Amino acid sequence: MGKIPVNFTGVRVTALLELYLRWLDSRDRHPILGDEWAQQAIALLDFDFDQFKPLGLGRFAVGVRSRMMDDWVRAFLGRTPGAVVLDIGCGFDSRVRRVDPGDGHHWYDVDFPDIVEIAGRLYSPRPGHTAVGASVTEPGWLDSIPRGRPAIVVADGLLNFLPEHDVRRILTQIVEHFPSGEICFNITSPVVRKQREKRPVALFTKFGIAEQWFPDDPRDVEGFHHRLRLAEVGSPGDASLLRRSPLHYRLLVALIGLVPAWRNAGWILRYRF
């Protein structure tokens, strides 16, 4: 089988970048996430992944946040019979395979139609999994998802790239669609926006990728809907998950933690509703 040509621009490129970073993590001696499916996906795509090398340290942050979200999903499914999982902006992530939900749980992956089509060629079908080709900023994207079941919603590496009014609308739609559940996502703070203004990420400039939402505080999201409540705040510098990462990276994280302005530059968040 020949390789699948990929010619993305804009935010779609982040699906490739995150896949590359999960692949780098899987090749480490002591991976944080250990995504065994990333290699097969990389091998099937006709794309110059070498251009992502300057961002290679990002594998640690991606490994931490994806591992944390995987654990939150497993815990939620373990205590919530019949729950569904909704992974929005899933890209080429193999999370449904890593978590491996049991019978009684249905998993929905949502992303742009062209990404969903390619992902369907990267991974074999599995029972209890449905891919939905839709943009979460367009009307009707939730129409095919059942309403009457509790849900855990994951937005790994998505919301930073949407304007606040879209984030607010998407989270409101989710909360009003399901009777109860949780929402997990990662986000960066305004200190990162200031850094980006001084030193733009060359790769983002090349592909026209724009980060747009930088909340001041995780509790700001509670104001988006009266049912949203902050349940947990994780950090990309989580010491327990980074304990076997290279010493140079742990030292870098420790140095960043000594600077008050950078201590809360990013969060991994879990909300209940």
From TrEMBL:
<dbReference type="GO" id="GO:0032259">
    <property type="term" value="P:methylation"/>
</dbReference>
<keyword id="KW-0808">Transferase</keyword>
<keyword id="KW-0489">Methyltransferase</keyword>
<protein>
    <submittedName>
        <fullName>Putative O-methyltransferase</fullName>
    </submittedName>
</protein>
<dbReference type="InterPro" id="IPR016874">
    <property type="entry name" value="TcmP-like"/>
</dbReference>
<dbReference type="InterPro" id="IPR007213">
    <property type="entry name" value="Ppm1/Ppm2/Tcmp"/>
</dbReference>
<dbReference type="InterPro" id="IPR029063">
    <property type="entry name" value="SAM-dependent_MTases_sf"/>
</dbReference>
<dbReference type="GO" id="GO:0008168">
    <property type="term" value="F:methyltransferase activity"/>
</dbReference>
<dbReference type="Pfam" id="PF04072">
    <property type="entry name" value="LCM"/>
</dbReference>
